[in-house]
Amino acid sequence: MLSRSKKVPGNKVTDDLWVFGYGSLMWRPGFAFLESQHARLHGYHRAFCVYSHVHRGSPEQPGLVFGLDRGGSCRGIAYRVAAHDSSSVTEYLRAREQVTQIYQEVRSAITVLGNEQKVKALFFIVDRNHHQYAGKIDFETQVQMIANGVGQSGKNPEYLENTVRHMQDIGIEDKELTLLWEAVEQRLGQGGGQNKLT
């Protein structure tokens, strides 16, 4: 159940900051928060549509990371951050997400599941005009890029595995991502990836 907090008249937006996480923020938020809730964002879906040149790859050998792309909906985690921490958390997220300016910062409505409360949240959507926007990549290319990607934040397969396992733990089902992880795991087991998990 959501904690009580001040509401803005005429809107279900609190003075606290809500942050919507759909990828690594679900299992490694990196900031303090008052509560976390399952949530849904309408109008965007989770996709491996971003070439990673820093965190999980390099310009010479890009990895793949998630972006919120137009269409559909996405289940994730909403974090409520205390109002007095909102500025520092926003700056932290900008530094983390906007290393190459591939994302656009958005503040828009999400639905907190359970009580269907709508709140305004901060999240980042992919910029389709950016050179790192990958669009829709075929399955085999995704497997190859993820199996071989490594960057400043670690190996690309770990990023996928952590996301899939966390989603499974909290009851978010995504059969396509599970199949992708199984294919990457098989590729690594066959020695086809440079970054086999230990």
Strand and helix map with partners:
Elements: E1 17-21, E2 35-52, E3 63-81, H1 86-97, E4 103-112, E5 117-126, H2 139-148, E6 150-151, E7 154-155, H3 156-169, H4 175-189
Parallel strand pairs: 1-5
Antiparallel strand pairs: 1-3, 2-3, 2-4, 4-5, 6-7
Helix pairs in contact: 2-4, 3-4
| Name of the top-level CATH class | Alpha Beta
Q: Can you tell me the CATH architecture?
A: Roll
Tally of helical runs: 4
Main β-sheet, spatial strand arrangement: 1-3-2-4-5
Number of domains: 1
**What is the end-to-end distance?**
39 Å
Average pLDDT confidence is 89
Q: Into which percent range does the helicity of residues fall?
A: 25-40%
Give a quick account of the main beta sheet: strands, pairing sense, barrel closure.
Answer: 5 strands, mixed, barrel
* Computed Rg: 17 Å
- Share of β-strand residues: 25-35%
CATH topology tier name: Hypothetical upf0131 protein ytfp
Please provide the count of β strands: 7
Structural class: alpha+beta
Order of helices and strands: EEEHEEHEEHH
Low-confidence residue ranges? 1-13
Spell out the CATH superfamily.
Answer: Gamma-glutamyl cyclotransferase-like
